[in-house]
Amino acid sequence: MFFVISPDPPIKQGQTRYHFLILLFSKDEDFSLMLSMNEEEVEKPFEGQLTKDMSGSLYEMVSQVMKVLVNHKITVPDNF
């Protein structure tokens, strides 16, 4: 599973600009995450969109956290 990030402005290293960052995740990799915040710190600023204990596929958790942090829509693949 690929996760593509398009930073604005692009990341620049020397004269080269990188318009996209591509992360590669395995579909079979499950992950468990425990945020180092108490329940109130998680629920109040993120309006209940995140939980303190999260588990599942790594790519799903990364997309969920990114969606909440950057407040943008994330496009996911679907079956055709």
Automatic annotation (TrEMBL):
Per the record, the similarity remark reads: Belongs to the SSRP1 family.
Chief place of localization: nucleus
InterPro entries named in the record: RTT106/SSRP1_HistChap/FACT, SSRP1-like_PH1, SSRP1/POB3
Enumerate the spans annotated as FACT complex subunit SSRP1-like first PH domain.
1-74
What GO molecular function annotation could you give as one example from this UniProt entry?
A: histone binding
Q: Record the organism.
A: Bos mutus (wild yak)
Q: Mind telling me which GO cellular component terms the entry cites?
A: FACT complex
Localization per record? Nucleus; Chromosome
Keywords on record = Chromosome, DNA damage, DNA repair, DNA replication, Nucleus, Transcription, Transcription regulation
Q: Which domain of life is it from?
A: Eukaryota
Q: What is this protein called?
A: FACT complex subunit SSRP1
Show which residues constitute the signal peptide.
Answer: none
Q: Name one GO biological process term.
A: regulation of chromatin organization
Note one Pfam family from the annotation: PH1_SSRP1-like
Role this protein plays: Component of the FACT complex, a general chromatin factor that acts to reorganize nucleosomes. The FACT complex is involved in multiple processes that require DNA as a template such as mRNA elongation, DNA replication and DNA repair. During transcription elongation the FACT complex acts as a histone chaperone that both destabilizes and restores nucleosomal structure.
